[in-house]
Amino acid sequence: MSGKIFIALFSGINVGGNRIVKMAELRSFFEDLGFSDVASYVQSGNVVFRAGKGDAATLTKQIETAFAKKWGFHSRIMVRDLNWFERLVRQNPYPEAAADHTKLHAYALEREPTVDEVARLAEKCTGPERFEVKGDVLYLHAPNGLGKSVFANLIGRVLKVPGTARNWRSVLALLEMAGQAGKN
């Protein structure tokens, strides 16, 4: 089967009992759009798929538009390819935190933040969290967990670059799923 493996990361679905999308329906939706090797991971909306043509930006627009039409609301979607995920894991600046999946998160950002945007965010990071931005990825080490992190709640507002976060377990699971799909 030719084509390239991509991962779609949805934001704002199945959170707090709102905007419910069943994963089986989401998988069918991707198949109806003509994608193959479709697999989903957990309820927050992560889909691994193979596309015969198109790049991440084109696929993002196509999927976002079709999704809004089908479900009646907009979900911001980040589509990334397998190489992007491999690089994300390889470049993790906090390898010592990777063992505790709940303390390490990666944010897929819509674009690379500017130096000024990152500096503004750094001013707000007074501990115990640490973060680093590499390209269009923000790595966050939150030693007390994301749920208790005041800083984590500020990231979107201060950085002003749309993104969606995944904990390290999800990152590794998606990379493994994408890698397996790539071997088929």
TrEMBL record:
Gene3D superfamilies (alphabetical): SP0830-like domains (3.30.70.1280)
Pfam families in the record: DUF1697
Entry coiled-coil feature ranges: none
Entry-linked SUPFAM superfamilies: SP0830-like (SSF160379)
Protein's name in the database: DUF1697 domain-containing protein
Organism: Mesorhizobium erdmanii
